[in-house]
Structures are given as structure tokens and as C-alpha cells.
Amino acid sequence: MVKKEMRLVEREFVTDVYCDVCKKRIHTELDKLHEDYIHIEKKWGYGSKNDGKECSYDICEDCWAKIEAFMKK
What we know:
Number of strands: 4
Shape: flat
Radius of gyration: 19 Å
Low-confidence stretches: none
Largest sheet: 2 strands, antiparallel
Distance between the termini: 67 Å
Helix content: 10-25%
Mean pLDDT: 89
Number of domains: 1
């Protein structure tokens, strides 16, 4: 026998994503077609200059292209 019950479940949804470099809106939950972006997270380790610091960045494709070009120099 299978017993079932109904439950209300609260879920968290991303509603908007903004580029942390140029501040442009990259994505909303309602967009069917949207620009892609890169998400970077870093938790700095013990003994580093940034010990204990946590960073999180969302970067649009245009800004990422500029960052990549700078890194390749």
C-alpha cells in the first residue's frame, strides 16, 4: 500500500542576475532567451592574504571577453 499526502513546499528562484562589472541585467526567470554569464565563487583558505574571505561574481559575456583579452596579454 502506498500512502500519499499533499504538502506545500517553498522554493527559492533566481529572479534576476546582474553583471558585477557593468551592472547590466543578464537574466530573469521570465526570459525565454537570455545571455549566458559566468559565475565565479572563491572561499579563501587559511594563511592567504584573504584568509576567510568569500567572493562571488556574475559576469556577462561582453565583460568576460574583455577580462579574457586582458589575461592573454
